Amino acid sequence: MRIAQLAERTNVSPASIKFYVREGLLPPGERIGPNQTAYSDEHEARLRLIKALIEVGGLTVDAARSVLESMQAAGSLGEVLGTAQRVASIEVQASEESLRRVREEVERQGWVIDPDNPGLKQCAAVFDAYLALGRSDLARLDIYAAASLAIAEVDLDLVDAADADRQVAAHTVVVATALGDKLLAGLRRITQDHVSRKRPQNQLPARPCDAKPPAPARNSQTNKR
Amino acid sequence: MRIAQLAERTNVSPASIKFYVREGLLPPGERIGPNQTAYSDEHEARLRLIKALIEVGGLTVDAARSVLESMQAAGSLGEVLGTAQRVASIEVQASEESLRRVREEVERQGWVIDPDNPGLKQCAAVFDAYLALGRSDLARLDIYAAASLAIAEVDLDLVDAADADRQVAAHTVVVATALGDKLLAGLRRITQDHVSRKRPQNQLPARPCDAKPPAPARNSQTNKR
To answer: Which of A79, A133, A176 sits opposite B175 (nearest CB)?
Structure first.
């Protein structure tokens, strides 16, 4: 197909397509004449992945390139997961003290991980921020940890399901890592909203939902007989 | 205290402090002489919050300003939560079809929410990306949903615990919303790593952890007697 058709199918502008080719994210199309280039279905699939990583996953062009390269390299799925995790992590500073606390927490949970896992630094940065704000809200850490473990299990189930074909499995790892955070953040906004409405002591937002709020708790009608 | 001391205590440069004052995030200090300005403990606390929102939470200056303004406005905690959720969400496009699917999913879960909750669009954008990639990996959605609900419950517990003082409660909502996503993303990287090592069929990353890997499963030794 020509660039115009590729652009239309993927909803990525021809200028952006050319940019991704220049930046080495998308292989160049095949020259079929002066000023004419043909793109294949593989180009289309690759472009959809690039778009998802950058627009939804929030990756930079450099980060997306690293992930795509690791997908195609001969390394293990563990290496693909490591790269996807690293580039999809924010660059943060964290104190040694908080890093030590996170490592202790990981040990307490019985988790065995790479000592350079980028999640350690990210969690430590959050600990630092809580401490700087005069907080020690980490009581909820156990529930966050249990929820996170349940999610990691399904994330890895996906990888196992796809492992017949290493290329498909690598693709799955990348997509699940880059987009899973966003899915979870979206669900957290939805469930916070839901939970805040279930609790009568919380004031509700000004704009109520179309749906009926839950009926008030029965036991608020006291036993007058 | 003087600006140099404020800078040292919070690890924010004097130039950035002046920038936050110009941008309306931090109230100006008190003029105590020509070229001399005094800052209070309230300035210090506010500056730590600004730093956490921007550096760890990843908020833009405009987003941080909106959150800080909503904290100080007379609105309900639900409104503070709504603002924090909105500004901490990525700006995404989503198809009507995927939005409808997310709404159906919310209804199926029995969740009652604001029809404009920003999580709806964020989840729909992830659905769109999966569809564009030829995937229907949404089998795991139930587990993500259950995990997210558990997290929202503890998030709101925090708010309830703090609700004696509305200003403290608002502060808690803002911090939990902006930093909770990052904590969860960090934990997800850690637990994915842990789970991938528990599963013998997954190749492990090249650089192993100091700790011993778990022993191989017993039932791989078949019943030769």
So the answer is: A133
